[in-house]
Design goal:
single chain; about 500 residues; alpha+beta; seven-stranded antiparallel sheet; 16 helices; 19 strands
Length: about 500
């Protein structure tokens, strides 16, 4: 045996002897029950079934990912790895007393129980972090039981846990690939597909993603899609005239980030046009909220194979002004300072990917307080805030995928977030809570779900719509139920046509 491996094996056996040197009958008995319950992953699959039946949508997603992680792990560990390593099990007897559990007939390295336990815990935790709090200690107990019951060496268990955690991480891309394959082969009824292959393409010159835009153009040509008209997003106001041409429902493609999608949506809400999205922005929060693929070619493929679904839009009407629509969020306060800095072309050219981080730091440093009157559902109140947001789509934070609990892009309401002047640490905590699935309230931060909110500040203030400064309050924020026709994946849960 290779000398380092021989030294590791000797250390592993000494550690095994120390951990199993004393008899503890009560602990043996309880750990035996726990270990046997995890045979063939029945413990984890039972928990997954309970999550699927009694949990919400997010718990079901976590259960699916945990089960897929177990399947990948079991296939890897129980077939090739054990037979490649071919490590014998620990001795059948220690100190002239029988084993408290039957010795498995397979090889010892790595531990399948430990691998499956940590695969399930990792897969579930990545989808629903709160559920990992009880599952991770249970997985650790199952892993420890395999050494305590003297059927595995400690290194078998550690290696199995590491492999399981790795497969838990891998399960996400595996599920995404399977979904993409399914959506590419799923049959969408002809009546729910886009009516034409001719497109109106709206592009954002400031997106800074010209290489991706060229990839999108090549992919559209390869898939038989024809760009009849291409316009910059600054000319989006002419879209109502363009979509009225011809005798069919046109497809308008927004190639850019949330600002581009919002500008296109503002122009086509209430028209027969269908909105397609090629996410080329930095965050792409609205696209993520309705499960648009982030890969350019996959997003283009969706334009030919997806279905037309109806999702909500937001509408802001300033006093004495025409209504403006938004798809992701409208905001007053912190987000205005952020948007002014983050949308400057010279700043983006100089800072690149650091632009958003610097913009956040500057916005949080200022935090000016404003006083306003809020009115909703026959209620009125006066309050002092540093930030107010009316959110239509639930995901924010770009690739981080932070989500507002209980929100959906087709729930017929706006999620209102009101933030008072708070210390930085509490503001950051409020942003991190959704990332780990915590719904605990923070004093100074309030949320509402409403269909209409009137905002009247003491002094007129700027408003951002989908990250762009685009109006002033006082004014009214309201939801437009099912106001936007969007090309989505076949499995999107919204209304169709």
């Amino acid at each position: 045996m290779f000398r380092p491996l021989a030294a590791l094996d000797a250390f592993d056996r000494r550690l095994f002897d120390r951990l199993t040197g004393q008899e503890r009958r009560i602990i043996d008995r309880n750990l035996k029950r726990l270990s046997n319950s995890a045979n063939r992953s029945m413990l984890w699959l039972t928990i997954a079934a309970g999550m699927a039946v009694f949990g919400g949508h997010r718990a079901r997603q976590a259960a699916l990912r945990g089960a897929v992680a177990i399947a990948i792990t079991s296939t890897l560990v129980n077939l090739p790895l054990k037979y490649v390593a071919r490590r014998d099990r620990p001795p059948r007897r220690r100190f002239d007393r029988p084993l408290p559990i039957s010795m498995p007939g397979s090889f010892s390295f790595p531990s399948g129980h430990s691998a499956s336990a940590f695969a399930f815990a990792t897969g579930v935790g990545l989808e629903h972090p709160r559920l990992a709090l009880p599952i991770l200690p249970l997985a650790s107990a199952v892993a420890y039981s395999r050494v305590h019951l003297r059927v595995h060496y400690p290194f078998d268990v550690l290696a199995g846990a590491a492999i399981g955690a790795g497969m838990g991480l891998l399960s996400g891309p595996v599920i995404d690939a399977a979904r993409h394959w399914w959506n590419s082969t799923a049959q969408v009824p002809e009546s729910e597909r886009p009516a034409t292959s001719e497109l109106i393409l709206v592009v954002s010159p400031s997106a800074g993603r010209s290489a991706k835009l060229e990839r999108a153009r090549r992919a559209m040509a390869a898939m038989g899609l024809q760009v009849a008209t291409e316009i910059p997003v600054n000319d989006a106001e002419i879209l109502p005239k363009l979509v009225q041409r011809g005798g069919h429902s046109p497809t308008v493609i927004a190639a850019g980030g949330d600002g581009t999608v919002g500008a296109v949506a503002n122009a086509i809400v209430g028209t027969p046009a269908a909105l397609g999205i090629i996410p080329l922005g930095t965050s792409n929060d609205f696209a993520r909220s309705i499960s648009i693929p982030m890969h350019v070619e996959d997003a283009v493929r969706l334009l030919t194979r997806g279905r037309i679904s109806r999702v909500d839009a937001g509408r802001f009407t300033a006093e004495g002004q025409r209504p403006r629509h938004f798809v992701h969020a409208a905001a007053v306060g912190l987000n205005v300072g952020f948007a002014r800095f983050a949308t400057r072309a010279d700043v983006r050219a100089r800072l690149g990917r650091l632009t958003y981080a610097v913009a956040v730091a500057l916005a949080l440093r200022e935090r000016p307080v404003f006083r306003c009157e809020l009115e909703w559902e026959e209620r009125k109140e006066q309050t002092n805030l540093v930030h107010l947001a009316a959110i239509n789509a639930p995901i924010f934070g770009g690739f981080l995928g932070l989500r507002i609990p209980g929100a959906d892009p087709d729930d017929r309401t706006l999620d209102i977030i009101m933030i008072e002047h708070l210390p930085i640490r509490r503001l950051l905590r409020s942003a991190l809570y959704p990332a780990v699935g915590v719904r605990r309230g923070i004093r100074g931060i309030r949320t509402l779900q409403v269909s209409r909110l009137k905002v009247r500040p003491t002094d007129s203030m700027d408003v951002t719509l989908d990250g762009e400064v685009a109006g002033k309050v006082p004014g009214v924020f309201e939801v437009v139920p099912g106001g936007l026709r969007v090309i989505t994946r076949a499995d999107f849960r919204g209304d169709h046509r």
